[in-house]
Every structure is written in structure tokens, then in C-alpha cells.
From TrEMBL:
Domain of life: Bacteria
Organism: Lederbergia citri
InterPro entries: aa-tRNA-synth_II, aa-tRNA-synth_II/BPL/LPL, Anticodon-bd, Anticodon-bd_dom_sf, His-tRNA-ligase, HisRS-like_core, HisRS/HisZ, HisRS_anticodon
Stated name of the protein: Histidine--tRNA ligase
Quaternary structure and interacting proteins, as annotated: Homodimer.
Top enzyme category: ligase
Length: 423
């Protein structure tokens, strides 16, 4: 039997990969505008990193990690997300000492989670994310949110909803935590086994449970917003003020909590409101994590970031009927007839490519008609026609395949003349 692709993964083939490249380039362009620089960390890390960095009460750590022992007996995990690795690298490379502060980074690459595959949920997916480390200015929270929104908007998405919340500082979180325990404890038996474990460890995560989301105690749960102390309230007010100053509409949802254990203050999600997007509406999630750098062995450093997947971005584009033209352009195709012409095409092709033209030729010894067909199939702009007789006379014919116009150029000055023709 033929070997098949693993469940929850996909091949991205030529014709579609150009859409990915377009989106990836857009993301890089926007990061450059906002002055975030790329960081590349390993695809696998020591498992310990995610136990500490993502938190052992999360779905990711509890059930979704691809973990294994390597041949040296080390516990290794394919990265399920990017923040832990970026923060590890920040601490390990002592970026807190960089002359440029805050440290603004972005990453783009595959993540791995053992999930039940469905629309918008894969076992290997590509995340784009940013992290800003070292600033506790609410303007950077607004900047990070704006960067994510800009990517979606620049691709033409309109049906977006930005949801924000604040989880407050440690004092606020602890007060809220106590209130949550009080609220859920008497009836915790009615909740799933995960929630029962979460009650003492991290009751906030109960609010994020997918199994028990419709339980009546969820709606009546104490809202974090009532437990924000003065500092936390002020911080949240500033973030909202700056979002408005940047012309961004948002909704405050006090039930929005992010999966990770170390989140505090700002939390946000961007959802698609497009009809037909499906059950999973979250495109992007992010927030502030002021305790994480220290947890990774670095000095106490505030941080904020987001992550989004290209897969869900593509679903959102599809749901809004937006088509990214998968552009693949070829400048010219050499059509050679006769033995000498074929030999010369090797030289000419090399010259064309050196001069910067994307160029192709026939490698299947096809007849003239079939070579023209091949040129059209790859949408070449020009056909360069080499014949033994013309070569002897020092001429090369060039046909514009869009207009059908044909010109003779001189063999000796071909690259110069062809460059002029293309301009
Ligand atoms: P969800 O609630 O959908 O499981 P999450 O809270 O696990 O999301 P995060 O860990 O915050 O998601 O990841 C950020 C973003 O990465 C999500 O908003 C989503 O766009 C994307 N994402 C997460 N898991 C997957 C997956 N399995 N396949 C494709 N994209 C994903
Ligand atoms: Mg998930």
C-alpha cells in the first residue's frame, strides 16, 4: 500500500504555496514597519521548557505535546507554540542587556500539537507571532494588537472582532482566584476531571474549558474586572484609550482568559465573524506575561505577544471570499529547434538567468508546437526562438506571448536588447 501523509498534516503544493509566501512576506513587511526582528529557535526543545513555560494545567501540556526520548535518553518535545522558546532564548542570550530596548521579536514557523484534526485544527500548523520584552508601557500592548490587526486588514479581511480583557496584576489575580474557588468548589463535582484538577492549581483555566463551557456556573462566575486593583484598572484603561487612539474597535469580554498560566494584565483575541467560518472562530490570541522571563531563569522582565496561525487566516480569507492571486511569473521560455540551437540554449539560458530573468527551456526534446504550449502553460511572457539558420545569421526571434508581437534581436547584443524590450 502507498504511504500516506500523517493525520492532521498537509502538503502545500506549488500553486497554493505562493499564497503562503504572499502572506508570510506581508507579515515580515509589517514586522519591519513596526520594528520587530525575526528570531529562529529550534523546532524541538527540552520538554522541561514547555512544562515550565506553558504550564502543566494547560491542554497543550496535558494532552497535546509530541514528546519523545532521543537516543541519548533526553526528553524532547516538538514545539507546540513559540513564546516559551523565545523567552528561553531571551534569557539564555541575555537579551535583557541589549542596547536596544524593549526587545521586539517575531517568529514564523511550524508548531506541533496532538489534536483531533478538523477544519482549522491541524497537528502541524504554522504560527506567526511576536513578542515584545522589557516594556510595561500600555502603548506596547496596543502596538502588538495593532500589528496583528494590520496583517488581517492588509489582506482584505473585514469581518473581524477584537476582544480584550485584563487579568490584572498578581494581587488582582489572587483576589479573583479566591473568589473563583469559592464559586466553583461547592459544585465542582459537576465539572470534568480537568476542571476538578484546575480548581486548586489554576481556577482561571476553568473559564477556558471547552467541555464545561455551557455549565450555568460559568456565566455567573465572578468577573476579573471586579477584582482589578487600582493599578491594574488604570493599566487596562490606558490600553483601551490607546486602541481607540489607533482607531481600533474592540469589545471587552471579562470571560476571555488565555490558556497559558503566566498571563496577566492584557489578554486579547481576534475572531472572524464571517459566516461559514465554522465553529472555531479564533484567529489570533495574545496577552501579557510578566512572570515568564523570571520563570525561565532571566531577570524579572515584562512581556507581551500574540500568536496566530496561517491555516486559520487562510480559512478566514476563504470565508470572506477573498482570493489571494497565487502569482508565479516567468519572463521567458527558450524554444530551440535543431542541434546547434539546443546547444546554444544552454549558454543563453545561463546568460538570461545571470541577468536576472526567470527563464525556462524545454528538457523533453519536444517539437516546436509542444514547446510553445509548454511556454504558455507556465505563462511565460516571452518566447525566445532559436533556430540553427537564424543563429548562423546572428539573429534571435522573440515573441511576446501576451500580444503575439514578434521581434528580431541580435545574437551579439541579445541580453541588452532583450532587457530594453522587457522594459
Ligand atoms: P484553540 O482554543 O482554538 O485551541 P489555542 O488557545 O490552543 O486555540 P493558542 O495556543 O493561543 O491557541 O494559539 C494561537 C493561535 O494559533 C490560535 O488562535 C489559532 O489561530 C492557532 N492555532 C492553535 N492551534 C491550532 C491548530 N491545531 N491548528 C491550526 N491553528 C491553530
Ligand atoms: Mg488549543
Amino acid at each position: 500500500m502507498a504511504i500516506q501523509i500523517p493525520r492532521g498534516t498537509q502538503d502545500i503544493l506549488p500553486g497554493v504555496v505562493e499564497k503562503w509566501q504572499f502572506i508570510e512576506n506581508k507579515a515580515k513587511e509589517i514586522c519591519n514597519k513596526y520594528q520587530y526582528r525575526e528570531i529562529r529557535t529550534p523546532i524541538f526543545e527540552n520538554t522541561e521548557l514547555f512544562l515550565r513555560g506553558v504550564g502543566d494545567t494547560t491542554d497543550i501540556v496535558q494532552k497535546e505535546m509530541y514528546s519523545f526520548q532521543d537516543r541519548g535518553g533526553r526528553n524532547i518535545t516538538l514545539r507546540p507554540e513559540g513564546t516559551a522558546s523565545v523567552v528561553r532564548s531571551f534569557a539564555e542570550n541575555k537579551m535583557f542587556g541589549n542596547p536596544t530596548q524593549p526587545v521586539k521579536l517575531y517568529y514564523l514557523g511550524p508548531m506541533f500539537r496532538y489534536e483531533r484534526p478538523q477544519a482549522g485544527r491541524y497537528r502541524q500548523f504554522v504560527q506567526f507571532g511576536v513578542e515584545a520584552l522589557g516594556s510595561m508601557d500600555p502603548a506596547i500592548d496596543a502596538e502588538v494588537i495593532s500589528l496583528a490587526m494590520e496583517l488581517y486588514k492588509s489582506l482584505g479581511l473585514k469581518k473581524l472582532r477584537l476582544v480584550v480583557n485584563s487579568l490584572g496584576d498578581n494581587e488582582s489575580r489572587n483576589a479573583h482566584r479566591a473568589a473563583l474557588i469559592n464559586h466553583f468548589q461547592p459544585r465542582i463535582g459537576e465539572f470534568c476531571s480537568d476542571c476538578q484538577k484546575r480548581l486548586e492549581k489554576n481556577p482561571l483555566r476553568i473559564l477556558d474549558c471547552k467541555k464545561d463551557r455551557d455549565h450555568e456556573l460559568m456565566k455567573s462566575a465572578p468577573s476579573i474586572l471586579e477584582y482589578l486593583n487600582e493599578d491594574s484598572k488604570q493599566y487596562f484603561e490606558k490600553v483601551k484609550q490607546y486602541l481607540s487612539a489607533m482607531d481600533m474597535d474592540y469589545i471587552v469580554d471579562p470571560t476571555l482568559v488565555r490558556g497559558l498560566d503566566y498571563y496577566n494584565h492584557t489578554a486579547f483575541e481576534i475572531m472572524s465573524e464571517a459566516e461559514g467560518f465554522g465553529a472555531i472562530t479564533t484567529l489570533c490570541g495574545g496577552g501579557r506575561y510578566n512572570g515568564l522571563v523570571q520563570e525561565m531563569g532571566g531577570p524579572d522582565t515584562p512581556g507581551i505577544g500574540f500568536a496566530l496561525s496561517i491555516e486559520r487566516l487562510l480559512s478566514a480569507l476563504e470565508a470572506e471570499g477573498i482570493n489571494i492571486e497565487a502569482e508565479h511569473s516567468v519572463d521567458c521560455y527558450i524554444i530551440a529547434l535543431g542541434e546547434e540551437a539546443k546547444d546554444y540554449s544552454v549558454t543563453l539560458l545561463q546568460k538570461l538567468r545571470t541577468a536576472g530573468f526567470s527563464s525556462e527551456r524545454d528538457y523533453l526534446n519536444r517539437k516546436m508546437k509542444a514547446q510553445f504550449k509548454a511556454a504558455e502553460r507556465i505563462a511565460a511572457k516571452y518566447a525566445i526562438i532559436l533556430g540553427d539558420d537564424e543563429l548562423k545569421m546572428g539573429n534571435i526571434a522573440v515573441k511576446n506571448l501576451e500580444t503575439g508581437e514578434q521581434t528580431e534581436l541580435s545574437l551579439d547584443h541579445f541580453i541588452d536588447e532583450f532587457s530594453k524590450l522587457c522594459r
